[in-house]
Amino acid sequence: MSLLKGRVAIITGASKGIGRDMSLVFAREGAQVVCAARSEELLRETAARVRAAGGEALAVVCDASREDSVRAMVAEAVRTFG
Description:
There is one protein chain. The longest helix has 15 residues, at 67-81. With 82 residues, the chain is an alpha/beta fold. It has helices at residues 17-28, 40-52, 67-81; strands at 8-12, 32-37, 56-61. β2, α2 and β3 form a beta-alpha-beta unit. Helix content is 49%, strand content 21%. It is built from 3 helices and 3 strands; from the N terminus they run βαβαβα.
């Protein structure tokens, strides 16, 4: 059963550790995952892992401590996953 089918999950700190693991878990449960963090290279790795596992992922460089960065990340997520 896909608990999050049709939902979009924004995971901050998705470049490594718990954030990366949560990106994979949310995708496995059917969510479209927005992987957000400050490290572009590591984010791309996380998104690639999600896709390789059959999920949908968007990697967005974002500094969650800056409102303008968070707004831009949400806008990109809406454009991509609408």
